[in-house]
Design brief:
The complex is a heterodimer.
Chain A (H helix, E strand, L loop, with lengths): L1 H15 L3 H23 L1 H18 L7 H23 L9 H9 L4 H17 L4 H11 L5 H8 L3 H21 L20 H18 L4
Helix pairs in contact in A: 1-2, 2-3, 2-4, 2-7, 3-4, 4-8, 5-6, 6-10, 7-8, 7-9, 8-9
Chain B lengths: L10 H9 L8 H22 L11 H13 L15 H11 L1 H4 L15 H13 L70 H11 L6 H24 L6 H11 L5 H11 L80
The chains are: A mainly alpha, B mainly alpha.
């Protein structure tokens, strides 16, 4: 992760200089994270639009930013958050995610490989659980895990005290553990037997899921 | 919530989970719970990063890039002109001028104003971009490093190339060699460098070149105005920094000192520059002022603006001696009221935060 951060930091600087390739690099590094975060706030059909709006602002205000990769993610997340909150205000509520299985499978269907499909499902399922958390807990967890912020930056993004965010994240994890324990369809559990699943969820792919998930987790989760 | 069931999930463990670190010290009883949680978080995070192939364009990327380009060039900009291809000087100038249309024309009618919430810096970036594109003929870095567009240079096209020209740095450098590569601006700075080359050819020639090339924007005078506007802006920027006590790098300081005709005069120069100016409304071609950026006594505005009651024009480093900054030529009465002494606050100033 440190290497990736250095690359992102450099790309941000270069993009501020006007380098379009660097901007693309920034986009590709950050967009999935923002999208994941926004999904927990506004739900799937709208998340892409809201994130697009965020990018317009990010692109426009890019020169205003200064800092390293972590701060950049936090800054971008803040912009995305504001767009999402605006959206939520208009819509009146925070939607649940993934209550509809078709949403999840639809997303998985867009994936190119079976592995990606599985990941998408796993992600979607976890997101649906996250969406059941109180918003502050969900955000605290997602900003850390999905956006990859460290505790301090997550707090800045939320505009809250670090202690409050830490507590919210802690509670969120407990709640998530609870939901997982209660959920027979828990995500990629090693010990549980997978219940009836859409056809592509084979034991073999489940192993792929675990391996893939584990692998990517160790690779992707931010190590600060 | 039954906390006792999750006693294993203490704050430290939670923090490790959030960071994706491996868990130790979780008893076997709870190991499966911990693993389940860890995997769920892994799934959550996996989509964020691992999956995207390095070379794959993402959904929405083009739209974001378009916004990025617009932000750099301003409305009516020509991003293609600054794309990564070598831009010959005159074309660069044209591109710069046209791309800069929304930026440097101080005091345009509101219709030309940039959209709200455009912060100060992007405007500078656009400015820098335009400069980088070689408004004065593009080229290698010159006397002023990367920041100021002013400080023109010798009448001869002798370029005092200082350091490395990074294609991506938006140096305002009149030398013909510059290939501004989509680099639009030094980070948070506003001007590019200018070479002594700047004055190297008659401004009219450059304007003429631009005219031939492109100029959707109209007249000679416009182009010159624009150029002056940029020079002006660069000088003002340097002065602002100077007055704020920021450390100017060597080249910028030297340019400022040159413009002020002496280090000891910089303060006065800047004061007049920043406070004495009134012509923020750089109207295009309004003054039809001459190519000369000598200081004629009347001090026609550097930014193509209207009246200019004794403001200081950025002095270009020509071989000749220009008038000094010291004496405002016009009575203060001609000054338009400034909303703020700091040039940066002027509404029509593209550098102004009020522009948003």
């Amino acid at each position: 992760m440190l290497g990736d951060d250095a690359e992102l930091t450099t790309a941000v600087l270069a993009a501020q200089d006007g380098n379009e390739t660097a901007f693309r690099t920034v986009y590709r590094a950050v967009h999935p994270r923002l999208l994941g975060y926004v999904r927990t706030l506004v739900g799937d059909p709208d998340a892409e639009d809201v994130t697009s709006e965020a990018w317009l602002q990010i692109a426009r205000d890019l020169e205003r930013f200064s800092g390293d990769a972590d701060r950049f993610r936090g800054w971008a997340a803040r912009i995305a958050r504001n767009r999402a909150l605006d959206h939520m205000r208009m819509r009146g509520r925070r939607p649940s995610i993934g209550g509809d299985e078709t949403e999840l499978t639809g997303r998985a269907a867009e994936s190119d490989t079976a592995g990606e499909a599985i990941e998408a499902l796993a992600t979607g399922r976890t997101l649906s659980l996250i969406a059941q958390l109180p918003q502050d807990q969900a955000e605290a967890v997602v900003l850390r895990v999905v956006v990859g912020l460290d505790a301090k930056t997550a707090a800045e993004t939320l505009g809250k005290r670090p202690g409050a965010v830490r507590t919210a994240a802690h509670r969120g994890l407990k709640r998530l553990a609870e939901l997982l324990g209660a959920d027979p369809e828990s995500v990629g559990s090693l010990s549980s037997v997978p219940p009836q699943r859409p056809p592509h969820r084979e034991p073999r792919t489940r192993a792929v899921t675990s391996a893939g998930v584990t692998h990517t987790r160790s690779r992707t989760q931010k190590d600060m | 919530m039954a906390d006792e069931q999750y006693r294993w999930l203490d704050r430290d463990t939670a923090e490790r989970l959030l960071r994706g670190e491996p868990l130790d010290g979780v008893g076997n009883d709870f190991r499966d719970q911990a693993d389940r949680l860890a995997e769920a978080l892994g799934a959550l995070g996996a989509q964020s990063t691992g999956r995207t192939a390095a070379g794959a364009e993402l959904p929405g990327e083009e739209a974001a890039l378009a916004a990025f380009r617009v932000a750099r060039t301003g409305p009516g900009g020509e991003p293609a002109a600054r794309a990564a291809r070598p831009v010959p000087r005159s074309a660069a100038v044209s591109a710069a001028v046209s791309s800069d249309a929304g930026l440097v024309r101080l005091g345009r009618s509101p219709g030309h104003r940039r959209p709200p919430s455009r912060p100060r810096r992007p405007v500078r970036y656009g400015l820098a971009a335009a400069l980088a594109a070689g408004m004065l003929g593009g080229g290698a870095m010159a006397a002023v490093s990367g920041e100021l567009p002013f400080g023109g240079g010798d009448p001869e096209p002798t370029v005092s190339v200082t350091a490395a020209v990074t294609p991506e740095r938006p140096l305002v450098s009149p030398s013909p060699d510059e290939t501004p590569d989509g680099g639009a601006g030094t980070p948070r700075s506003e001007g590019g460098a200018s070479t002594p080359d700047d004055g190297s050819r008659d401004r009219r020639d450059e304007a003429g070149d631009r005219q031939d090339e492109d100029t959707p924007d109209g007249s000679d005078g416009d182009n010159r105005e624009d150029r002056f506007g940029r020079l002006w802006a660069g000088a003002r920027s340097a002065c602002r920094d100077y007055r704020e006590g920021k450390l100017l790098d060597f080249d910028r300081r030297r340019s400022l000192e040159d413009a002020a005709r002496g280090a000891e005069r910089v303060r006065k120069y800047c004061r007049v520059l920043l406070e004495g100016r009134d012509g923020r409304d750089g109207r295009d071609g309004r003054d039809g002022h001459d190519s000369t950026d000598d200081w004629d006594g009347r001090g026609s505005d550097g930014d193509g603006s209207d009246g200019d009651g004794g403001h200081v024009r950025p002095r270009l480093f020509r071989g000749d001696a220009g008038p000094t900054v010291s004496a405002p030529a016009r009575p203060p009465a001609t000054r338009a009221p400034d909303p703020a002494p700091d040039a940066g606050a002027l509404p029509a100033d593209p550098l102004s935060p009020a522009y948003s």
